[in-house]
Amino acid sequence: MAQAKIVFQSETIDYGEIKKGSDGVRVFEFTNTGDEPLVIKEVSSSCGCTIPKKPEGPIAPGETGTIEVKYDTKRVGPIRKTVTVYSNAEETIKALKIKGKVLPEEVTEI
Length: 110
Known about the structure:
By secondary structure, this protein is an all-beta fold. The protein has strands at about 5-10, 10-20, 25-30, 40-45, 50-55, 65-70, 75-85, 95-105. A four-stranded antiparallel sheet has the order 1-3-6-5, with no helix packed on it. A four-stranded mixed sheet has the order 2-8-7-4, with no helix packed on it. Strand 7 (about 75-85) and strand 8 (about 95-105) form a beta hairpin. It holds the Pfam family DUF1573. This is DUF1573 domain-containing protein. It comes from Autumnicola lenta.
């Protein structure tokens, strides 16, 4: 039976230690290794501080696509979030993770 199959380059994005207010955009890259067009139906996040953006159209077999994730780096502390991808792939629900730590602004002595 023909089916789309989604394979991510990495299922975890590690922000490492980043400064408060820095660019929070990262990208999950994937390939459709199946033999049917892949349709990403929805991408949701475990909290409002993480905004995922799904591809608009179907991803043809053998093609690559991206899911952009924007984390709100105004929140200081550890990053441990899950981004859930819903699609027509063989594995219909896929959980991706983002992790890291947002450091507070440096205090400069006068």
